[in-house]
Amino acid sequence: MPETTRERLTSGGWKELEFGPFRDAVTIHWIRPFEGDQPGVALLKYEPGASVPRHRHEGLETILVLDGVQSDETGDYISGSYIVNAPGSEHSVWSDTGCVVLIQWDRPVKILEDEIA
């Protein structure tokens, strides 16, 4: 990522970007959409109380929390936290307070909600 982009993202410049629909109460700003076998990079903005259902990581996922607090079953991650989710790992994600994260997925995740019988 170019230095000017990194500085802009970590200094709150993301507040000026346009976000579109992603999931219920979660919006997205694509920095680099998935293309072929290339990873996807985006900003996700969670409204207070937003959540993403249980899902499996089909590839490596890395997250930098830029603002607020993101949570999963293993803990709460404050601004500045760096999270790595290994391929094959599963969890659900939520934010009680709202948050913005910079996320990179090697491959799209698989939502598991529909697999529960």
TrEMBL record:
Protein name: Allophanate hydrolase
A Pfam entry, by short name: Cupin_7
Keyword Hydrolase listed: yes
GO molecular function, one term: hydrolase activity
The keyword Hydrolase belongs to this UniProt entry's keyword annotation: yes
Residue ranges that the Swiss-Prot or TrEMBL entry lists as coiled coil: none
Domain ChrR-like cupin residue range list: 16-103
Keywords: Hydrolase, Plasmid
Membrane-spanning residues: none
